[in-house]
Amino acid sequence: MNFQPLLDEINEEIRPLLGRTGTVASYIPALARVAAQQFGIALRTCQGEEAAAGDAATPFSIQSISKLFTLTLAMRHLGDGLWERIGREPSGNPFNSLVQLESEQGKPRNPFINAGAIAVADRLLSRGDAKSELLAFMRSLCGEPILFDAEVAASEAATGYRNYALANFMKSFGKLDNAVEPVLDLYFHQCALRMSSVQLARAAGFLCRDGRHPLAGEAEITTERHARRINALMLTCGTYDAAGDVAFSIGLPCKSGVGGGIVAVVPDRLTLCVWSPALDATGNSLLGRKALELFVAKTGLSVF
């Protein structure tokens, strides 16, 4: 299938809708200044073919999309031991909710809500220089330099009161091994990774290739079993408390971020990234979701 004309067509359909609905993430000051009238879409097939349209080369703060990459590293290092402190069930609550931590004694419901990602960051931090490891991992997956956005990381640290509350709450239950400050420093920096739609579609390519490196042929990023598990978690938990509706309307494993990006996986076919900063009420890109619905409708590609 020649995907370039299809992405151009989706871009043309989305452009007139830019700026009409949705709002950018205002609770992080550095994200509140991002222009809402932007849209990018990019994909990479299992065979290495790439296509892109719109603002696909524009870098943005990937935010919670980073959670799928830190989860991959943690599963690679810890295997099933990772799940001793983290669940695998949808939360049904906002991504920064403290409610379930009270009743579940500091064990996050899944690794894609903030509490779960903070728990993953804690486990990675115990292994050494986790920020350098993460940067090297992302650069390897993209084949290009990837950096943290220092302004976004500082902005999150200055205003991340709920994340501090989540981390301290877990610490009080003995669910964090490291001090709260360095754990959150890693978490804020992973969310501040700055990448484009093209780079993210490429970086996530191992998830449609049974865990094999998107650029290095048969080299293994993670096992086939772990790749399946990550895709399953993306489908059930990857888009905050809208995961059920996203599975219903799009039918692909997805991971979103409040920077406006959404990564989607068509197993054994391709990975796709859409980006538009204006969010819906659940914190997902409003026009990003619309673009994914158009893509599935036009191609018939779905896990169902």
- The helix-and-strand class reads alpha+beta
SS elements, strand count: 8
Kindly report the spatial arrangement of strands forming the biggest sheet. 2-1-8-7-6
Percent strand equals 5-15%
Largest sheet: 5 strands, antiparallel
- Low-confidence residue ranges: none
**How large, in whole angstroms, is the Cα Rg?**
18 Å
Helical content (DSSP H or I, runs of 4+): 40-55%
The number of helical segments is: 13
So what's the overall shape?
globular
On the 0 to 100 scale, the average pLDDT is 95
Topology as H/E string?
A: HHEEEHHHHEHHHEHHHEEEH
Written description of the protein model:
With 304 residues, the protein is an alpha+beta fold. It is built from 13 helices and 8 strands. The chain has helices at 3-14, 29-32, 66-78, 99-103, 114-125, 130-142, 150-159, 161-172, 180-191, 197-203, 224-237, 243-249, 286-299, and strands at residues 40-45, 50-54, 60-61, 147-148, 193-195, 254-256, 261-266, 270-275. A 5-stranded antiparallel beta sheet has the order 2-1-8-7-6. The chain has a 3-stranded antiparallel beta sheet with strand order 3-5-4. β7 and β8 (270-275) form a beta hairpin. α8 (161-172) crosses α9 (180-191). The protein is globular, with a radius of gyration of 18 Å. The model has no long low-confidence stretch (mean pLDDT 95).
Question: Which labels suit this protein?
Answer:
five-stranded antiparallel β-sheet; 8 strands; 304 residues; alpha+beta; 44% helix; three-stranded antiparallel β-sheet; 13 helices
